[in-house]
## 1
Amino acid sequence: MRAVLVGPPGAGKGTQAQILAEELSIPKVSTGDIFRANVSGGTELGKKAKEFMDRGDLVPDEVTNAMVKDRLAQDDAAGGFLLDGFPRNVPQAETLKGMLADLGTRLDVVLELRVDEEEVVKRLSGRRSCPECGRVYHVEYDAPREAGKCDNEGAELYQREDDREETIRHRLKVYRDQTAPLVEFYSGEGLLATIAATGPVAEVTARAKAAIEEKR
Ligand code: AP5
Ligand code: ZN
């Protein structure tokens, strides 16, 4: 299964990608997570990405495309993958198509997660993430057992730099201007499946699985 998750910031792409990748036994490839790991590790890639991420802008395509190409060339992605956060604009989608064609393959499905902008602001302002295992929580909708600590290993949860309200609003604009055109692009390719990403996490997962099965 080669799948892509598309949706505005806070739609639940990371949350669903983690669950779906495990259930489908494929690696989750999250460009946002890879960038954040590079920023906290102080790598060259992290230095290139940081200023764009802090503003809520897209990292330049040549940086992002090269990173994804390397990641998809790793052994564990040979049998399939779930992309979370890539592609993010039509040129990246064209690049991905070319990369997969070079590997003799193509995407199976692009799952669009739909949620309205007010819900996004509520979700992102309450988001907390684990620096150790990457699990994402919400202070109200998906709280850890002990406030501020990860259920898995007890690490102190943190709030993302780009989850301040004005940066969230800017990321939403970037989504509308640059990413939303992908919906039409993939619909034209016959790959698009759209689900409502509201309601409990488990219900969204069930909808996602049904939509993916239908496209298989
Ligand atoms: P990225 O990390 O991809 O951020 P994003 O797209 O803005 O998405 P988020 O991670 O904010 O949200 P999500 O949809 O994963 O939601 P989550 O599951 O966490 O990108 C960050 C930056 O990196 C970009 O701005 C850009 O600079 C750069 N970048 C990344 N990819 C790039 C690319 N391809 N090209 C260029 N630049 C790129 O959920 C959010 C919250 O809601 C959580 O608290 C969660 O617990 C809660 N929640 C989830 N589901 C539900 C539910 N059903 N009900 C209630 N709450 C829920
Ligand atoms: Zn953790």
Note: The longest strand covers residues 109-114.
## 2
Amino acid sequence: MSQVSLTIDGIEVQAVPGTSVLEAAKKAGIKIPTLCYLEEINEIGACRICLVEVQGARTLQASCVTPVAPGMVVRTNTPAVRQARKLNLELIMSNHPQECLTCPRSTNCELQQLASELGITEIRFSGANPSYEPDFSSAALVRDPRKCILCRRCVSVCEKVQQVCAIAPQERGFNTIVAPAFLEPLGDTACVNCGQCALVCPTAAIHEKDQTAEVWAALSDPGKHVVVQTAPAVRVS
Ligand code: FES
């Protein structure tokens, strides 16, 4: 198949037509930060963290959903790009609880990691922070909608990989929530506790239930039978 030739940060890159600028940059060894993107699973341009400058375009473009074009000139690390990424992440974090010290994903959180990489030291904005309650109804998973950044990775993996469709975006605007239909408890749905959603969640919005107490109870009472659920692996780009 004939290749498209473009320039990214001064490097000439060849890519198959239809390839995203993000993937073409990755091939050239140029890292563009992402948050909502999961290769071939969730390519919806939701978070706007992967913005780049495309010569001739009037606005910054989300590289994960922008296809390469012949002669395209892309810049991934200009002051305007860095400022826009930082602003977008600040806006996402303005609606996220500042509970890192007590969060089960602390030090293993993509949001936290990205904030550090982009040099965010304060959140200048205050979001609506809807007061949804955590959902502990599942045998293996905890849903904490307050920590959801609406990247929809969990929705895509549940639908396209597991073909279960247990969760989807509900409500609108600041009240948007990823949850089972009619906001039913996760434990009352067709969810099979595979854990794929927790594996791809960039925060602790869906995380594995801590079963340490049950395991210790079983160890101290050999007669007690405890089932501990674990999540199988999924490819994360
Ligand atoms: Fe491209 Fe989220 S990674 S918009």
Note: The two ends are 24 Å apart (CA to CA).
